[in-house]
Design goal:
The complex is a heterodimer of chains A (151) and B (134). Chain A has 151 residues and is of the alpha+beta class. Helices cover 15% and strands 34% of the residues of chain A. By secondary structure, chain B is an all-beta fold. Classes of the chains: A alpha+beta (151), B mainly beta (134).
Chain lengths: 151, 134
């Protein structure tokens, strides 16, 4: 037990701004909890994603401007593709920020692939601010033409 | 504080040049200021640099861009997630009178448009050396 002087009217108890701070803490803790949910795993934001299928492959596109290739981390575990990384503020930028609408920090997107893919044939490119991951379908997932033989 | 470089009225009345049916979204920006001028970053992922139009006129900087239809083509068998979209981007900034319109330069790398706006020489800080009187 802590021994402190009992001061019911001390400014830190009655200051309305203090009360606001505790409200802020409450919100912060709620959001901190939200980012710990499975899927987020500490990520701060989630850039827009497209997933589509062509005849021979599954293509995933992530929209994210101003990144370096090495800042992306792409992993395939069983049938879950995860793209994560960090967008950092460029070091040569200096000066006072007047307006900031861009997101920085860690991001993460996870996606369960709809069809089995060949893990060793995955290719990724980054161009014009779009990361494109092409995953070739496994042979058994590709459409097969069945020839009709004459009886 | 003067108007600096700030977002101008985005909802200008439709004219012949901007027909009403064209819908524009404002791209995310980051604006920094230092002694020599301003640095403006505009996020335009998926926009090739040839689709970006930048104009400086009447004390305003106008950014226009068009993003083509993403992940398309007749080869698509099925879409699973579709969060990206095509569209037109527009953003207008009022330029502070201290900015030299001729100094505006722009570069585009990996979907990020970086615009540099320098203050005219008269508005740049100048260091004056103090000489000792004799």
């Amino acid at each position: 037990m802590k021994l402190t002087t009992y001061r019911p009217f001390a400014p830190e108890v009655w200051s309305p701004l203090e009360r606001l701070n505790s409200l802020k803490d409450l919100f912060d803790s709620a959001f901190a909890l939200a980012t710990q949910l499975p899927g987020w795993q500490g990520a701060v934001w989630a850039p827009p994603l497209d997933v589509y299928e062509t005849e021979n492959s599954v293509i995933v596109e992530l929209e994210l401007a101003g990144m370096k290739k090495e800042d992306f981390d792409i992993s395939l575990e069983n049938d879950v593709l995860t793209i994560s990384g960090q967008r950092t503020v460029s070091k040569e930028r200096e000066g006072e920020s007047l307006r900031g609408e861009r997101f920085f920090g860690s991001f993460r997107r996870s996606f369960t692939l709809p069809v089995p893919v060949q893990a060793d044939g995955v290719k990724a490119t980054y161009q014009d601010g779009v990361l494109r991951v092409e995953l070739p379908k496994a042979e058994e997932a590709k459409p097969r033409k069945i020839a009709i033989t004459q009886g | 504080m003067s108007t600096q470089i700030s977002p101008a009225n985005q909802n200008q009345p439709a004219t012949a040049a901007t027909p009403r049916q064209l819908h524009y979204t404002a791209p995310a920006i980051q604006l920094l200021q230092d002694a020599e001028g301003y640095l403006l970053e505009v996020e335009l992922p998926g926009v090739p640099s040839k689709n970006v139009e930048l104009t400086v006129a009447d004390g305003q900087l106008t950014i226009l861009a068009h993003r083509p239809e993403p992940s398309g083509g007749p080869k698509v068998v099925r879409h699973w997630v579709q969060e990206r979209s095509a569209g037109n981007f527009k953003r207008v900034f009022d330029l502070d009178p201290s900015i030299d319109p001729a100094s505006v330069t722009a570069e585009m790398h990996d979907g990020l448009l970086t615009i540099k706006l320098r203050k005219a020489a008269a508005h740049q800080p100048r260091r004056i050396s103090v000489t000792s009187g004799s």
